[in-house]
Amino acid sequence: MPRNILLEEKQYLGLNHYSMLRGLVLALFCFVAYYFTEDREQNAELLFFGGVALLVLSLLSMFIKHLHTRVYDSAIELDGLWTTRKVKIDIASVASVEKVPYSNYILNSPVYNLHRNGTISFYTSGKTAIKLTDRDGLQYIIGTHKQEEFFRIVNELLEKARQQ
After folding, report:
1. Model confidence over 130-149: pLDDT tens digits?
2. Domain range holding 20?
3. Angle (nearest 5°) at CA 109 between 16 and 119
4. Which of 33, 42, 121, 135 ranks highest by number of CB atoms within 10 Å?
5. CB count in 10 Å sphere of residue 4
6. Crossing angle for the helix pair 17-36 and 42-60, to the nearest 10 degrees
7. Do residues 131 and 155 share a domain?
8. 36 and 76 part of one domain
9. How confident is the model at residue 2 (pLDDT cuts 50, 70, 90)?
10. CATH number, domain at 117?
11. Same domain, 157 and 97
């Protein structure tokens, strides 16, 4: 039986500000070192081609899917890179949902299923997140670009589950 997808969101690694900045700074370093190399020997060419390769890798990383979030009638499913496990959060086990900022920092590393201090984080990019608390007190922080819609849908599902 096909399940009804209420919300679907894909987030890509290359669109994270930290990943972009890291690649551009390293490429810029290679180009500056190439420019200031006096003898344009084989080593200088390596710096130039290294900078170009870093730019190409940064561009290609924009097409690598890091986090795929799906909200169904009965569960929230988080799927990561090809080597990660799928995480399923049952709506019936969720006690509360709230809108939160992901972090106060400008640059944040992408994380998938990061367990820290009783909180499980899923984040690729952006500033907004949804915080889910289950009945056992475990908290899930899910970074999203569709915070309002995500919050509304999960809230409606929680209300429907409480009425049953």
Report:
1. 999 999 989 999 988 888 99
2. 13-62
3. 125
4. 121
5. 9
6. 160
7. yes
8. no
9. low
10. 2.30.29.30
11. yes
Token digits of residue 57? 């890798």
Model-wide pTM > 0.90: no
Question: Can you say whether the dihedral through the CA atoms of 129, 64, 111, 21 is positive or negative?
Answer: negative
**In whole angstroms, what is the distance from residue 14 CA to residue 37 CA?**
30
Structure tokens at 10: 């894909």
Q: How far apart are CA 14 and CA 144, in angstroms?
A: 15
Final residue belonging to a domain, choices 22, 45, 62: 62
Instruction: List the 128-134 sheet strands across, edge first.
Output: 94-101, 128-134, 139-143, 119-123, 111-116
- For the chain, what is the mean pLDDT? 87
Domains contained in the chain, number:
2
Rounded Cα distance, 78 and 84, in Å: 10
162: exposed, middle or buried (C-beta count within 10 Å: 0-12, 13-18, 19+)?
Answer: exposed
Read off the tokens for 151. Answer: 């919050």
Pairing mode of beta strands 119-123, 139-143 = parallel
Using the 3D structure, point to which of 62, 77, 103 is the last residue of a domain.
62
Q: Which residues make Cβ contacts (< 8 Å) with residue 155, sequence separation at least 6? A: 97
For 76-133, write each residue's pLDDT tens digit.
999 987 777 889 999 989 999 999 988 878 777 788 888 888 899 988 888 889 999 9
